[in-house]
Task: structure prediction
Amino acid sequence: METASQWTLTTFIERLADPRDPSGGGVLAAVTLAGASSTARMVAAVEKKRSARDSVRTHTFAAAETALAQLSTRFLQQSEDDRAVLARLLAAMRAARKKTSRASEEEVSLAALAAAECPLTTARLGLDLLRQLASIAPLCSPFVASDLAASGQLAHAAIAAALFMAEANLPLLDPKSRDRIAAQIQSTREEAVVLADELSRALPFAHAQQGESDARPPA
Result:
């Protein structure tokens, strides 16, 4: 079966608009984070090449490049997982409408828990992305600041979106699970604000001597 990561961009956009497809905000958040991570990976690769004579900087950017590649892969997997948990929840809710039983109610609750935990995991991984961006931002030249800033803004927005998707499932959870997930959502939201601010302050815009520019060097 073809996975979401194998779709063309046109197919992806159409699937998001299709009410029959279990691709919603959680999938979009995960794919956005994958894109933000890949853009940051490009920045790390460019800066690694520019820092060839500085072994410490080269090592730092190489490590970031590897970590960002791994995050991109994780985000794409999260998009697949999100489709799966949403499909399970919708199926459980349809079944529960046809028959009222304790077993069907429990399946809805379990499916809702998975549907809440999946985008929450996506958001937590998004924090890892913001940490990576903040770690390399002070070492980056103004030449790539706009690309890193774009990655950071997209990451922060995608984290917020993923948390909204997790929050939407809270009413379907049992009280204990609801309180646990709600607390994790709040702490993740607060940490995202702190990390995004840290990244913003670390970007070298204040010292830029040139306008906005794409990080890729001329051919």
